[in-house]
Amino acid sequence: MPPEERKTKGTSEVAQELGDLLKVSPAKIDNALRGSLAGSSQYLTDAGDFIINEVRKWNGEEIPADPTSPVDDPLIRAFTMRFPTGGVAESTQIFYESANLATQVKNKLKDLKGDERAEYREQNRAIVQAIPYFKSSTKVIRKLNKRRNLIYENLVMTGKEKEKELRVIDDMILARAKQANDRYAQYIKELE
After folding, report:
1. Is residue 157 assigned to a domain?
2. What tens digit of pLDDT does each residue of 76-132 get?
3. Which domain holds residue 56?
4. Cα 109 to Cα 106: distance, rounded to the nearest angstrom
5. Do 49 and 133 fall within a single domain?
6. Are both 58 and 150 inside the same structural domain?
7. Lower CB density within 10 Å: C or N end of the chain?
8. Tens digits of per-residue pLDDT, 3-13?
9. 94 and 51 part of one domain
10. For residues 181, 182, 188 and 190, what is the CA-based torsion angle, rounded to 10 degrees?
11. Three-state DSSP class for residue 65
12. pTM for the full model?
């Protein structure tokens, strides 16, 4: 992928425009700004994004509304935080780490043969038992994340409506991650 296309939905418009112009990764531009300007970089990119989007609107482009929350208000941003749900929740991060471990164990099992495979399987019984559940949970969470992306791209919904819908999906992601973590913990406990 060309560097100027390396971006996420969280990459600022300023960084994307600079990336296109300079043929540099927009993600690196955002990271460089954060590294150089710390918290002030968010104010700078927010102002730039506002100007870019106003020009786009003036040119007749439809701009999807961003989800809104108190964290998005520049005056109170430093005193607020996002809800600890969805991908930012600790349980979800633990799920991703455990699901990654399950994939690694599954792949290693494919490479091993005979007694070596049986021994490795025995040493990793809990995670081996959890592999199917992590796999199905990963699929569910991936589908929920696709729904999140559709909400971000929606041109009709207001910022408040997006925030409300994203919260529901984030809660569903967190619930599924907790279920998978609990299942894995149960398998570990059964082996003790």
Report:
1. yes
2. 555 555 566 677 788 999 999 999 999 999 999 999 999 999 999 999 999 999 999
3. 3-63
4. 5
5. no
6. no
7. C
8. 666 667 677 88
9. no
10. -160
11. coil
12. 0.66
